[in-house]
Amino acid sequence: MSEHKFRTMGEQAGRRSWAEPWKIKMVEPLRMTTRAEREQAILEAGYNTFLLRSADVYIDLLTDSGTSAMSDRQWAGMMLGDEAYAGSVNYYHLEEAVQEFYGYKYLVPTHQGRGAEHLISQAVVKKGQYVPGNMYFTTTRLHQEMAGGIFVDVIIDEAHDPQNLHPFKGNIDLVKLENLFKEKGASNIAYVSLAGTVNMAGGQPVSMANVKDVRALCDRYGVKLYLDATRMVENSYFIQQREEGYGDKPVADILREFCSYTDGAWMSGKKDHLVNIGGWLAVNDWDLFEELRNLVVVYEGLHTYGGMAGRDMEAMAIGIRESVSDDHIRARIGQVLYLGQLLTDWGIPIVQPVGGHAIFLDARRFYPHIPQDEFPSQMLAAQLYLDSGIRSMERGIVSAGRDPQTGDHRRPKLELTRLTIPRRVYTEAHMDVVAESINEVYQKREQTKGLKMVYEPQYLRFFQARFEPIQ
């Protein structure tokens, strides 16, 4: 397990502390609002934290997507942007970085991760084909479904239990996967969709042993294996800390080995790569690459910029190199573990083990008296904002959406509220403030009632839906 030494309340003197492997060069002032101001803001936002204005937020834990702090080297790289429409030098820097650290042959840049999800779905998924994966992610599944695919969850059962301490709850269940291959036939499987540090399960990692076994099973049936590499650096750190035989290996080496068992990957560079915008899609098959770089011209931009400015590609290329530093990723995940330990010590129900990018509050146990159809995770996010101005987000029935066949709510076993920690942004003191606010809301939990949805968009409703409290 991790060698981090974390301060906790009541800890005996003598333990050595750890510190972030960077110093602060520039600061952004934060504004603390009053309770009355927050009540008005959440009312205007329809109790949806996505609809709050950032100026009304104190500590923003809505997402780690594009919210990281870039380094001085990344900012310097921004000044070296080659904004040529075709053949930007920054594209080739990005290509070299992806080839070096992820190992894929051919690169297609995109404006962000969902652009890459769209391209791979349009190129690979045929109508009526099945796409097995280790739990859904909202935008990934939507792109697969809009291409005519049918998502099937083949994650291990332990992933659906927030209290289970399995160290690799992101693993694919090999029996479930092979049964699907046999039942539907390999020709009816578009590809296997494997995500590192599964977001909807609480940021839970996949083991190296599991990806090897999945690769072998896919080879036996002639099925492709594609990776959502968005948080694979974090996944690689968990392998280093938890899996036998990897404790002495650098995270960069683990990352490249993991990717070597897959046929390609899509990436939201706004997470691991420490940039504010950008993504990519990388594959090893030339014919598929030819189709993808043709499609990117239709939907994103030329194949040497794909919706990004040259300066953004340069910042991402530098961010890739910084992200695989063992010192960086140890501190990044260490901050998440610190907050998780505080909440665990206070008996607040969270997903265990603590994941790589966020703390996931277990709203079912937080609000056992609120039925799932009254959106307890959504209300918990609203209550945290009301208490302290902290912005989190729902990851439960609202995010799951509706079944396209029945029109009824999908009702996931996990009903979670996510507090996502941006990289290199907040201090340990901010984490203390967050923990104390969660504890305050927890102490008042029995007084809290649910919500009713009063507006629901057709797609990805969690972004724009509106709610009202149930009186």
Description:
The protein is α/β, with parallel strands linked by helices. The chain has helices at residues 35-44, 72-78, 89-101, 113-124, 138-146, 174-184, 208-221, 232-242, 251-260, 286-299, 310-323, 326-345, 363-366, 376-388, 397-400, 428-443; strands at 59-60, 106-110, 130-133, 150-153, 192-195, 225-228, 264-268, 279-283, 358-362, 390-391, 393-395, 416-420, 451-455, 466-469. The chain has two domains: 35-60 and 326-469, Alpha-Beta Complex (Aspartate Aminotransferase, domain 1); 72-323, Type I PLP-dependent aspartate aminotransferase-like (Major domain) (Aspartate Aminotransferase, domain 2). It is built from 16 helices and 14 strands. The chain has a five-stranded mixed β-sheet with strand order 2-8-7-6-5, with helices on both faces. The protein has a three-stranded antiparallel β-sheet with strand order 9-12-11. Strands 1-10 form a two-stranded parallel ribbon. Helix 4 (113-124) runs parallel beside helix 5, helix 4 (113-124) crosses helix 10 (286-299) and helix 14 (376-388) packs across helix 16 (428-443). The protein is globular and about 60 Å long.
Instruction: Specify the number of helices.
Output: 16
At CATH level 2, the architecture of the largest domain is 3-Layer(aba) Sandwich
Q: Can you tell me the CATH topology of the largest domain?
A: Aspartate Aminotransferase, domain 2
What is the count of structural domains?
Answer: 2
The value of Rg in angstroms is 22 Å
Q: Could you list the spans in which at least 5 consecutive residues all have pLDDT below 50? A: 1-12
